[in-house]
């Protein structure tokens, strides 16, 4: 087990026109499950490969367990990796697949057997130890890859989209199994995914990446509830956070944001924005539908455009003064397209962003 420190890692591939990672720093305490999340091409895999020693950075440092390993060969870093493709040897039995890394390290046969049996038991592979991978399901094959990674007592576990080849249902059950397993092992784990649900479900913390940089790093609740910028708010959540543009106004003590005829109160901390445009961010499930509401105080009137029953909830696409606002209502809620509704946007659920920088504004009272 080990703490991992990444310091200002810069990497440009030969012939690449931009930096794959552009000065990434991250501190991952011993035993933490850190998820690197971001859209395709944002540099997640490059970061993981620099950690593993499969790529060398142009600048910056990788420190594992207090040791600078930036230019150390992969096999001398004591890491284990699980990749997206199952990467099991097709001609080796499950037992030999799991024990491969141990054998390569010259571990005595008796110890290999004990460790393989332990990992097989943990990952429910005991009945399959004599089988060839071709006779396993996708989920079982991926479990073999995980078992092989955990038997070697690595200081750090690296996982690059390990669930992405599994079908939706298997993915869901294996995700929970993996979470349990890693928390029991207590090994520092760095996990790459572009799937926001996976990131929120697995990570002790999530580092959200964009264009080679980390834009926000925090607990799942922090990054989901307090996105540092509009990109994070839009990337996390399905449907994503709503963003509405309005004009800050009001006299004296009174401060509000106007969307073109409909307005909401604005925190006093944002008084300096009077006369300027602001962006309001709010999650669809944070909005309360108030069918009976008749007054405009702290509420807005919208027109329903689309009504989608989703089983566990109802998704409404509405228009507020021409801007789209998605609302997640309760499962039993009914509304017809064209119907007008009052919605309450609780002040404590409203996040405020600068329209130019798209960065969150400090709006605490
Ligand atoms: N071997 C390479 N040679 C040149 N450019 C590369 C190479 N590998 C990655 N890149 C580029 O570096 C950037 C970051 O790629 P990287 O694979 O790290 O992103 P990612 O976030 O892991 O994406 P994905 O989720 O699609 O794997 C991209 O612009 C990509 O095109």
Automatic annotation (TrEMBL):
Molecular function via GO: ABC-type transporter activity; ATP binding; ATP hydrolysis activity
A GO cellular-component term linked to this record: ATP-binding cassette (ABC) transporter complex, substrate-binding subunit-containing
Any Gene Ontology biological process: carbohydrate transport
Positions of the ABC transporter domain: 4-236
Species per Swiss-Prot/TrEMBL record: Amycolatopsis rhizosphaerae
Protein origin, superkingdom: Bacteria
Protein name: ABC transporter ATP-binding protein
Keywords, ordered alphabetically: ATP-binding, Nucleotide-binding, Transport
InterPro entries in the cross-refs: AAA+_ATPase, ABC_transporter-like_ATP-bd, ABC_transporter-like_CS, ABC_transpr_MalK-like, ABC_transpr_MalK/UgpC-like, Mo/tungstate-bd_C_term_dom, NA-bd_OB-fold, OB_MalK-like
